[in-house]
Amino acid sequence: MRHALRRAGRGAGFALAWAGLMAGLTGCGGGVLDVGGKPGSPEEVIRVVPGDGARDVDPGVPLGVRLPSGRLERVAVRRIENETPARVPGSISEDGLRWSPRAGVRLDLAAKYSVDVVALDGHGRRSARHTTFTTEVPDHRFIGYFKPENRATVGTGMIVSFDFNQRIADRAAVQRAVRVTAEPPVEIVGRWFGDTRLDFRPKEYWAPGTEVTVDVRLRDVQAAPGAYGIQHRKTSFTVGRSQTSLVDAEAKTMTVRREGSAPVTIPITAGAAKFPTYNGKMVVSEMHDVTRMNGATVGFTDSGGKGEYDIKDVPHAMRLSKSGTFLHGNYWEDADIFGEVNLSHGCVGLRDVKGGSGETPAGWFFDRTLVGDVVEVVRSAERTIAPDNGLSGWNMEWNRWKEGAALR
After folding, report:
1. Does residue 193 surpass a pLDDT of 80?
2. Residue 60's pLDDT is what?
3. Sequence-distant contacts of 352-361: CB under 8 A, at least 24 apart
4. Same structural domain for residues 126 and 254?
5. From the CB of residue 402, how many other CB atoms can be counted at a distance below 10 Å?
6. 235 and 247 co-located in one domain
7. Are residues 263 and 361 both part of a single domain?
8. CB count in 10 Å sphere of residue 46
9. Which residues form the signal peptide (predicted)?
10. Which of 43, 45, 239, 389 has the greatest number of CB atoms lying within 10 Å of its CB?
11. pLDDT (0 to 100) of residue 356
12. Kind and range of the H or E element at 173?
């Protein structure tokens, strides 16, 4: 995580999103953190099977969550591959140490699942874990995992993004089989980033109220020798109200502009001189009401190799980049640093309280944010974020964006 931490002082500051209940473990500037723990790690370790990032998982593999001690508070396992998220039924054991799926439940082939867990230790302190895994895709088939979710309401900066499970040789054939349309109509162009990712966006932000349809007709489309598509589905999402936020790293403020409302300016702490926050337009891609951050997973360690910080209950966390930039609540720093000092490892921190509250700046902003909202950072010493780091394609000029299409 590219985020807040004062080495000799009061602790760390960092940042993190998925509009919902649960949690993830992430680091400011380093991508998703390993929340699985290591032998000898604290008793709050949350163990999830299959492991985080596992691919080609046998749908019949045992699925479960375990704690060595403490108590599971919430567990949600969902199929998230862009249809209405389908929850896997299951229950927590009477002793609170295990979650298991209902007897007879079998996972789907060629599907992506998320596991979100919140656990309590013996002192009532929360820890969180967020993992994902994908089940086996049949031989000679390929699949594209894409967002946003079906029937979601999103911000005006939402980008439709496909990640394919294998390299695409015939990009034109694949792009031709994916149609993204809008009502009212607007030109929408797909751009390739490498040979496994395809993003779609209009020239300007979506207009509020736009209905967007994603029609995927990849079944039997040949993407490479011997590799054929498996998907045939149509999903849609709605663009909600317009809200954009401008983070001024030098002034240490964030100004929130929403249609029909006066601008609201909030004091923030951004990346310290050694770890400046990326400049540029970033899109909220996930939201977590609580998550865990451990410096060891992103290279911030002390002389003994332990993480310089390990905060198990970071509140109001909103992901801004794939590499680990977040906007999040911060309760461990003194209230008077916000608007005065940049302390983070690259994230943007807002004042909060332990456990989170809707009455704090972080809670106020979280409650008014949608996945797809744009947060733009200016006047930072860091370079502009790359267009393929998260949903950051708005940083690319339109003509150059169109040059990356496989169809002309």
Report:
1. yes
2. 84
3. 352/315, 352/316, 352/328, 353/315, 354/313, 354/315, 355/313, 355/315, 356/289, 356/290, 356/315, 356/316, 356/329, 360/329, 361/266, 361/267
4. no
5. 16
6. no
7. yes
8. 27
9. none
10. 239
11. 87
12. helix 171-176
Query: At 297, is the pLDDT very low, low, confident or very high (cuts 50, 70, 90)?
Result: low
Do 227 and 252 belong to one domain? no
Domain shared by 260 and 379, yes or no: yes
- Token digits of residue 49: 């099977």
In b/e form, how buried is each residue of 359-396, taking b as 16+ CB within 10 angstroms? ebbbbbbbebbbbbbbbbbeebebeebbbbbbbbbbbb
> Does the residue 182 lie in any domain?
yes
Instruction: Dig out the tokens for 68 from the structure.
Output: 């060595």
- Report how many domains make up the chain: 3
Provide the token pair at 202: 């209009």
**Distance separating alpha carbons of residues 319 and 329, to the nearest angstrom:** 12
Single residue among 119, 135, 151 that ends a domain in this structure: 135
Range of the domain at 174: 141-240+396-403
Cβ-based neighbours of 233, under 8 Å, separated by 6 or more: 82, 83, 216
- Pairing, β 227-229 against β 141-142: parallel
